[in-house]
Each structure stands twice: as C-alpha cells, then as structure tokens.
## 1
Amino acid sequence: MKEKVNNKVILLVEDNPDDEALAIRALKRHHIGNEIVVAHDGVEALDYLFGTGMYAGRDITNKPSVILLDLKLPRVDGLEVLRRLREDQRTRFLPVVVLTTSNEELDVINSYSLGCNSYIRKPVDFVQFSEAIRQLGMYWLLMNEPPPV
C-alpha cells in the first residue's frame, strides 16, 4: 500500500470536468501530494462531509483540511452547502474557499455572510489558475493553523 504524504485531505467540489482536471493538474504540478476527494455537486459534498448517501459509514472525524467550493452546482448549490456546513457543529469551522467563475457582487456578499474563509475568482489563464491553486495549497495545508476542534 502506498503511504500518503500526509493525511490532510482536500475536498474539491466542482461540477465542471475541465475545471476539476485543471485544479488537480495544478495541485500535482506544484507537488501538493494530499489526497483529493472530488464531489461533483452539492449533494455529493454534503454526503461526504456528513457520512450519508454514497459515503454512508465513512469516518466523518477525518475532515478535509480545506474545501474548495464552486458556487454554481447542480442539485444543491454552493451557497446552500456553505449554509449547511456552518449550521452544523461538526463542520462549522472547516476552512471553505469559494473558488468560482462568478463575478456577481451578491455571490461575494452571500459567501462571506454564510461564513466562507476566502472568495477567489477562477482565473481564465491556466498559468494564473495554477499559481492561485499553488498559493491556496501552501496557505491552507502548510501555514494555516486550524481550530483544535
């Protein structure tokens, strides 16, 4: 069995296959060897985080170190995912970075009102996108000190 570099999981919540591939490629390109769990919509993300649905029985004490959350998702949108995370004691302090193409001011306001830790617009250019992902990884996985809960 291959040993993980560390146990810090990244939860990528992204419905666009191209953006998913770009994010994973950028993380690997910058040698961020953490496990990446991908949820393709809000329901999958909530199931993963709360150990329900297709993730029933998953050890939910193993929480992701950071959630990269798109807003425009099928079934349950990103703002609703964020609202549910912040309402639950088990997930209220998980770092959530909204990573979206939305440039709507209301999305920024709503994201912060619901408790996101950061709001980043996805750069169109791969080099800029890759650099943004590198910085996210460095900060949230290496530098950030999470709460002890």
Note: The chain has one domain: 10-102+111-139.
## 2
Amino acid sequence: MIEKMLVTHGILNSSKMKIQIVLLLMLLGAWPTIAQDTTIYCIGDSTMSDKKEPEKNPEHGWAQVLAHFFTEKVKIDNRAKNGRSSKSFISEKRWDSVHTSLKAGDYVFIQFGHNDQKFKDSSRFTNPHTTYRHNLIRFVKETRAKGATAILFTSIVRRNFNEFGTLVDTHGDYPVVTRMVAKEYDVPLVDLEYLTEILETSYGPEASKKLHLHFEEGEHPYYPEGIQDNTHLSKKGALLVAELAVKEIKSFELPLSKLIGL
C-alpha cells in the first residue's frame, strides 16, 4: 500500500532502497509525536502520599510535590498510601496495579519502612532482614522485568530530638537493609534518612517544627484542636525533602536526570 502510494506520487521510481530510505525518513519525522512521556510511579507510605484537600490541608507528602521539579515530559503517578508497609502494599494488590501499568522507560520510586516496624500489626509488620528485604527485592526485580528502572529511598527521619538537642534514630535496621539491597542489586539509592537528618539538624529542635505539623489549638482551621506531629510533613517540609531527592537523582547517570527542571 505504502509502496503504491509512493510510486503514484512520484516519490519512488525504482529500487527498494529508495522505499527504505523514504520510510526511514517518515518514521524519524514522526518520532517526536509518538514518543511517550516518562512516568514515575511512587510507592510507599504517608510521608510520600498525596493528601486530601491540598489547598486547605497543611500536610503534604514529598512525592505529592515532585512534579514541581521535573519538566513537562514527566508524569508523576503517586500510588503511595497512608499507613502502608511493603507487606500491606503487596497484600492489598496495590503493587500488582502498578506493575500492570509499568512500561519500558518508566521509573518506580520505592520508600517503605515507617509502617513495616509496626510489630503490633501482623498485617503490616515485616522483619527487616527477611520479609522486608525480600519485598524490596521483588519490587526491584519485577520493575526491571518490565524494562523500567527502580530507585530505592530510605525513610525520611522523624523529628525526634532528645533533651540534648540530638536527633535520635527511630527506624532501626530498615534503612540499613534498604542500603544493602541497593548495593547487592546495583539499584540507584537516594539516602533520604541521611539527607533529612542533615536537614532537620540544620533547623534545630525548635525551627524544625516548621517542617512538620505543629499547630496550637485554634492556630490552623484544618486542625482546630491543634496537632503535634513529628513524622508527617508540612508543605514547606515536603518541598525541601522532594528537592533533596531530586538533586540526588540529578547526579545519577539516568535518562531521568536530564528531565529535571532544577
């Protein structure tokens, strides 16, 4: 059909070689219109997830604001959900939903650990050295099988200063295991635990409250009774954490690094 059309319009006079050249030029010309945007799927917990009523709600997940840092060629599909561990994300078929949608060239940002340590909840708890480790490996392997790229993230720190002004760890071995999996399987790692530790300590025990949700009774209409939350992020905190993550990714030798707007 195409060959007839080319002959009819005088584009082709004889050889098959000319057909191949013309078709190649046509394909090259059409490439910009058929190229797909890159999708980043975010899987994780409430420190990462989208929040309801963002125009009113002061709480923001850091993946909720990621789009601010990438070009228009990147689509953020944030599947992170409040209260989920690596175990419950799988058992609730949330990972299956992401995996089904994945295509070659996409990315999966993986951050778990906050809820994996909930030892009083068997539906969420994972041993960091066994189930948690193998869940991370599963995410990585199944992402790669689709031709997509996995990036691992350690959990952001909690604002947990002691009486001496020292920020004290609350995540135990989970970030350690994340680093080990990243090394063993050669996975790009954004060490958010380290980066946010520096961020929190740079603000100090008092000013770091601005990175989280600290409101007295009657101070904010969304929390009329007040709130003292040292785990979840304010919009300011979310933007700063997302910026730290993106700056780290920019240093990686990945196609995604070229789509950062910083």
Note: DSSP finds eight helices and seven strands in the chain.
